Amino acid sequence: MASVSDALPTLSTQGADASAWLVVAVVVAGAGMVAWFLRIFRVPGARLLAGIIVGVALGPTVLGRVAPAPWERMVIGGSAERMVLQARQTEWKAWQLARGHVGVRTGESHDAEQEARSAAIAQAETAWRQAVAEHQRPLGIAVLLLAGVVGGTAALGRPADRGASGPTAISIGLWSAGLPVLLGLVVLWWRRALLPAPSSLAVLAALAVGAWGLNAADRRAAGQTGRDGPALIRGASAVATLIAVGLLLTSLFRASATTSDLRHWLGLVGAAAVGWAGLVVLRRSAARLGTAAAPPEDRGPSHPLVRIVEMLAMPALAGLVALQADWIADFSLWIVVGAVIASGDGRWTGAWIGGMLSGGRRPRDAARLALGACGSGPLQVAIAAIAVDAGLFPREWTVAILFGAVATDLTAPVRRRFAQIME
Fold first, then answer.
1. Are residues 358 and 212 in the same domain?
2. pLDDT surpasses 90 at 72
3. According to the per-residue pLDDT averaged within each range, which of 217-221, 282-286, 331-335 is highest?
C-alpha cells in the first residue's frame, strides 16, 4: 500500500489537485468538531486525541483499507502515474521472462533494449513521485503553518510570571529534556533501530521539547510550592524547548548536506523553529520584567488566541500528522512504550530531580512543580510535524511520538494525584 511518507518532497511546476485542499479542510474541520465533542465530556487530552482519531479514520489505517482507490486518489495522489509505472514494470518482467524462455543470448541489441526499458521505468517512477509530491503540497503547507502557530502561541497565555530563579529554571529544564533524550537513546539502541543521524536527532528533539503552557491545575500546583513556582516551570520549559529546537535544526542542516530535496524545505522549517524558539525565550525574559512577584493563584482566562489554538490548530495539526502513518503496519510496541514513558514519566521525573537538586525543594513540592513540565504534547506534535514534513521521521516513530504526546495528556490526572498524596 502506498503511503504519504513514501513521497519525496520535490518541486514541481504543476498545480495541486483541489482534492488535496479538500482533504486538509476535512481534517481541520473534523478534528475541531471531535475536540469540541470530547471537551463536552471533559475527556483529558481532547486537544490532541481528537486529531489523532480523525487522522487514523481518514488515513491508511481505516479509509485506506476500506476504500483504497478513492483514498489514494484524494490523499496520496499520482494514481494515474502509478498505473503507468506498474505497467512498465510488468512489461519489463514479461520481456525478461520471454527472452529467457526462448534462450536469446545477450548482445548489443539486448543491452540497448534493456537500457531503454530501464530508462522508461526510471522516468515513470520520477513522474509518479513528482505527481505525489505536488498533490501533497497543500498538506505540507498546512502542517508547517499549523506547527508555527502552535509553537508561536507558546509565548502567549496568562500575564508573565515574575521572580523566577535562573539557575533553578535551567536545572529543571536540562533534566526535563535530558532524561527523555536518554530514554530515547536507550530505546533506539535496545531495539537496534539506531537511525541515520538526522532522523535520530529529530526523534530526540521531539522527546526533549518543553511544555507548551500551564493549565489552571498545573499552575495552581506550581504556585503551592512557592510564589516563583509558575515562573520556574515556564523558564524550565523554555530551556527544554531551546534544546529541542537546537537538535531539530542540527538534524535539518545535516540532512540538507546530503539530500538536496530537503533544501527546498529547510528555509521554511528553520524559520518556523527559530521563530517559535524566539517567542518562548521572549516569554521567559518577560517573566523577569517588573518588580512585583506574581501571586500563586490562577489569574483568570488565558489569551483568546490560546483558546482558539487549543480548539482548532492543535487538533488539526495532530490530525494531519496522524494521517501520514499507518497505525497498524507502522505500530511497534516497544518503540511506543519507550516513547510514552519518555514523554510522560520520564519528563516529569527529570523535572522532579532538577527541582530537588537545584531548588532545594522537598520531594513533594518538587513533584508538584514538575507537573507543569508534562504539558509538552502540543510542542511534541509540532516538532514531529516539522520533521515528518521534511522527510526525517520514520513512520514507526511518528506513531510512537503521537502516542506519547496524547498519553501524557491522558495520564496527567494520575500524576497530579500522586504528587498530592506524597509525603
1. yes
2. no
3. 331-335
Number of domains in the chain: 2
pLDDT of residue 271: 45
DSSP 45-97: THHHHHHHHHHHHHSTTTHHHHSHHHHIIIII--HHHHHHHHHHHHHHHHHHH
Taking the mean position of all CA atoms in its chain, how far away is CA 240?
16
In angstroms, what CA-CA distances link 271 with 79, 265, 371? Answer: 33, 10, 30
- Report the pLDDT value the prediction gives residue 420, as an integer from 0 to 100: 72
> Using CB atoms within 10 A of its CB, is residue 97 exposed (0-12), middle (13-18) or buried (19+)?
exposed
- Please indicate, yes or no, whether residues 89 and 161 belong to a single structural domain of this protein: no
Residues 111 and 221 in one domain: no
d(CA 191, CA 396): 12
Spell out the residues 6+ positions from residue 368 whose beta carbon is closer than 8 angstroms to its own: 221, 222, 224, 225, 229, 419, 420
Q: What is the pLDDT of residues 299-329, one digit of tens each?
A: 444 567 778 888 899 999 999 999 999 999 9
State how far the Cα of 159 lies from the Cα of 93, in Å rounded to an integer.
67
Residue with cell 545535516: 254
With residues binned 3-state (H G I as helix, E B as strand, rest as coil), the percentages for the chain, rounded to 5, are 75, 0, 25
* Predicted local confidence at residue 64, as pLDDT: 92
Q: pTM to 2 decimals? A: 0.83
Same domain flag for 104 and 166:
no
Asked if 179 contacts 207 with a C-beta cutoff of 8 angstroms, the reply is no
Do 111 and 210 reside in the same domain of the chain? Answer: no
- Nearest alpha carbon to residue 223 among 298, 307, 318: 298
Q: In terms of residue numbers, what domain contains 121?
A: 79-126
